[in-house]
Amino acid sequence: MIYAIPLPYIANLAGWTLAEVGRQPWIVYGLMKTSDAVSPIATSQVAISLAAFVIVYTLLGIAAFSLVFKHARKGPEPAPVKAVEKGGPANA
Amino acid sequence: MLETTWFILWGILWAVYFMLDGYDLGLGALLPVLAKDDSDRRAIYNAVGPFWDGNEVWLLTAGAVTFAAFPTTYAVMFSSLYSALMLILFALIFRGVAIGYREEVESPAAKAMWDWCMVIGSFVPALLFGVAFANIFRGIPIDANGVYHGTLLTLLNSYGLAGGALFLLLFLVHGSLWLTTKSEGKLQARAASMASKLWPALLVVAVIFLVATAFATRLYDNYLGNPVLFIIPTAAVAGLVMTRAFIAKKAWWKAWFASSLTIVSATLFGVVGLFPNLLPSSMNPHYNLTIHNSASSPLTLKIMLGVALTFVPIIIIYQTWVHYFFREQLSDEDTGYGKG
């Protein structure tokens, strides 16, 4: 059962990729070609920002997964007795 | 008329954004200076915890309004300021994650790492928003097709840097004052002393910026053409003086509201000076992007106006409620920020 956890994520990503790849060469289907929609920005700028996105999301992915695993190993906490006294968000 | 209405709304959204996110950016940047121990740091996270993401809604709204009402300006602005905006974006990502994750990690080293993400992620946008807006006031090198002929370094001219210093100091004072309303004892005393120490520097930079604006930009043309508008920069200066007076009286909320008046009027000072331009070209005034040559169709503007007049009041109501609801100092039990 635990191996089913990644499946919805894979389905989500695969579906998104299918839609994005499938509509090429259009950026807006039937109205505007992707090649006509490119911004007048230096290739180096786009390369740097793409690399930065990959690095940043990898780092954030590592941080997120290590937290997920940490909490998963801890197991569920006993239900807190403290009710939402002041009506605030119950994220304590 | 429709285009002017949208221009005014555009300016107000940016002004409110700077007033709100200004305090949490400023306070985040001051984290290592104001906090002496972990309980201070938690108090600072708790002071911005319930608000910072709501405050950033105004940034999304301001960006979205630029896109919906003035799409040409949006395209040229985001392409021209690409690297600067990417830096702001990455800073805001790290900051947001830091606020969320800091409470979840236990080791002091991991906490310290997220604290630094918070500090840098707050400092960079505070500075770069000022640099970006000063360059918009001054005009950037765009040609007839809206193609930018410059680099990131083009933006770091002396007027741009003065704008960056002004925004940074405005936000640092604003953030210190926010903490005075959300803390007590030594931490509050440190926040108050920080605000009064930074205030003279802010005054000097504000005067330099107002004078430099006369030389580097054409913002004053609108004011000289219609002198009644001078009430806006006057309000900014009056807010600055009132801030100092209320700090002396230890009237923290009043000082924060005076500081808010300064930030809102300072932003509107620039926006009103720009009118009817949204993005002036420093190459040739004929290449300026204005509310006339970059606006959406009248139908789009009409529909969007209906949407904005419905939802902006709703946002104002719920955000006012959140700020009122959490007006007292918050403990860890209230928020869960920084626990562990």
Q: Helical percent range of chain A? A: 40-55%
Largest sheet of chain A: 2 strands, antiparallel
Major sheet attributes of chain B: 2 strands, antiparallel
- Give the helix/strand class of chain A: mainly alpha
| Oligomerization category of the chains in this entry | heterodimer
Overall number of strands of chain B: 2
Average pLDDT metric of chain B: 89
Q: What is the C-alpha radius of gyration of chain B, as a whole number of Å? A: 20 Å
Report the order of strands and helices of chain A: HEEH
The geometry of chain A reads as elongated
Compute the separation of the termini of chain B in Å. 55 Å
Please tally the helical runs of chain B, counting DSSP H or I stretches of 4 or more residues.
15
SSE order of chain B: HHHHHHHHHHHHHEEHH
Strand order of the largest sheet of chain A: 1-2
Q: Give the termini separation of chain A.
A: 30 Å
Radius of gyration of chain A: 21 Å
Poorly predicted runs of chain A are none
Total helical segments of chain A: 2
Reconstruct the topology from this structure.
The complex is a heterodimer of chains A (92) and B (340).
Chain A: H1 6-22, E1 26-28, E2 32-33, H2 43-74
Chain B: H1 2-29, H2 31-34, H3 38-48, H4 52-69, H5 71-80, H6 82-101, H7 108-138, H8 152-155, H9 158-181, H10 185-216, H11 220-225, H12 231-248, H13 252-274, E1 277-279, E2 289-290, H14 298-325, H15 332-335
Antiparallel strand pairs in B: 1-2
Helix pairs in contact in B: 1-3, 1-4, 1-7, 1-9, 1-13, 4-5, 4-14, 6-7, 7-9, 9-10, 9-13, 10-12, 12-13
